[in-house]
Amino acid sequence: MLVTGAASGLGARVVTAARSAGWNAVGIDVVACPSIDHVVADVTDAMQVRAAVEALATRARGLDAVVTAAGAPRPGVPDHTVSGVVDRPASVDLPGTAAAIRAALPFLLTSGGTVVTIALAAGVAGFTRALAAELCGQVGVTLVVPEGMDAGHTQGQEDQHRAGGATPLHAASTVAAAVVHALGRPPGCEIRELAVTPPGARRDVGSRRPASTA
Across the beta sheet with 140-146, what order do the strands follow? Predict the structure, then answer.
């Protein structure tokens, strides 16, 4: 399994959960990932991503899954503490996700593997749905939508979040467990969309497409 953004935040939690479930995880990030085989690369640079994916896939003797967590909320970054919507550079969201998947696709087509995208922006969600339609029957595609996630706030940030009347936040480890759950489905039982909603959170009808399985 290849995880982008593997050094910290949600990506690091996905690595931990995946390894506990028996996956061999490799990673890409802009900083080193000491606990796993990795390549330091910037997902906004398509050439760096392609070289990193090819190197890791060669060392791992193929890829069975890709999880695009680069750009997901990380600890101690105030802009990433809001529920459901984050203000991040667009180049880390959709182009970074697309670059990683494009580079990994030849390996996933060979293995019949699975892509899991983490969608905190509408562009990633739309891209993932189009990808699922295009690759149906060849590569599994799952869209995970974390509707409120704590990537490791300081206590003050969390207190401020709750004082503002906001809904509870999921721990990043909970979202990571959902990712691994999606990856663990047997052949022919693919989860297309998975919304991870905190207890007590209200989902406005029509605000998002409902999660579905196929």
Answer: 37-40, 26-29, 2-4, 65-68, 114-118, 140-146, 193-196
